[in-house]
Amino acid sequence: MISPTKVKKEKPLIIDVRTPKEYKEKHIPGSFNIPLSDISNHKKELSKIKANVAFLCKSGNRAKQACDILKENGVDTRVIDGGIQAWEKEGYEINYGPKSWDLERQVRFGAGSIVTIGVALGALVNPWLYGISLFVGLGLVYSGITNTCGMAFLLSKAPWNKVKHDSKTVLKNIKGDTNVA
Fold first, then answer.
1. pTM, whole model, 2 decimals?
2. Are the beta carbons of 171 and 34 closer than 8 angstroms?
3. Mean of the pLDDT values across residues 109-130?
4. In what order do the strands lie in the sheet with 53-56?
5. Looking at residue 164, what is its pLDDT?
6. Contacting residues for 34 by C-beta, under 8 A, at least 6 apart
């Protein structure tokens, strides 16, 4: 772990492992976006970076996973403690892009809407339609038990959640960065 204050002093190469959509909305100037989902695919290229590397995400959890993946290949990296939330709290510079609803908020809105519609249809049309709300409720329970979310997976594929991103191009830019030996 490395604190945001120490990052400002040491100036490591910052790799942001959040989704491209999250990165587009808010990121640290000079950071590079390689989503956690792409880290495993680029272990070889990332292991060649000779710069001091610090991983960043929203709070630190995904960055820790990225560190663990690269540690298996003998790459020493650190996590920015508290993620971009801590960076922002310290008042350090952040580049802001257009705001949109994050996936968790979309899931809550979608689940709440479907449950409400199911209850209304069950009351007004046919009691069997309460089953719609039951189905969503069971899905939420399953989501909590397994720490996965089918609705989030489906929503992540929606066109409004797509941001064009190519980690290979980002890696080429990292290699050309003056901070990288």
1. 0.72
2. yes
3. 97
4. 32-33, 13-16, 53-56, 78-79
5. 81
6. 15, 16, 17, 42, 46, 167, 170, 171
